[in-house]
Amino acid sequence: MNVEWALAELSVFVDMTTLIQPPPDNSGVLILADMRYPKGPPDRIVASAQVVEQILDRVLPDWRRTIPEDRDERWQQHRQAAQRAIAALEREEEVHENLGDNAPRLDAGRMHPWAWEGARSLWQSGHYREAVRAASVKINTEAQNKLGRRDVSETALFQSAYTSDDPKSGQPRLRLRDDDGGRTAQSVRRGVAALAEGCYAPLRNPASHDEGELSEDEALEQLATLSLLARYVDRSEVHR
Hints:
4 strands
């Protein structure tokens, strides 16, 4: 993420959504109601919100769920989220150095798009198990599209795609671009097929049948595993 750009966009939005009082009324009529309104022009606020929402989704993925809406002021939920996002971006390193062990952190927004885009909307509403399931479905669909197959799916699809057998009619194979047919390449094929089974047997299947919710940390780990599988598929070429 371009942090400098994001901070600038958020700051402009916060400024435009500052509530101000209307100019004094010289008619002599006293108005007791709160007549404050956003400082910026409505059309500019709407246009800015389109960009700001995408920044917030990256910096504070659950902002819509954790920051309450203000029914009286349309943009105040966005404004509060933007203020929090500014603090998070400006002081991120400081916070982690003082409160954490400065270990590497997983960023869902930097995972493979097939994983994160498939999971995003459910994730942001706190449905972590369903988000993992949606990501697994998206990756399976993309693999089917790449191979042009609908007759098999999930574990069976990947086992067929990454087998070391030669392609057959109706059964194309996937090979990483640096696959030279040697022992290491064959080992990688077996590994990708095993990784797929590890995704769909213990991750996708429970996500489809269990009613309990995952913790956010566990779901993030599962999403990262699916993202790794997606990268292998995306980097592979179809052999017919």
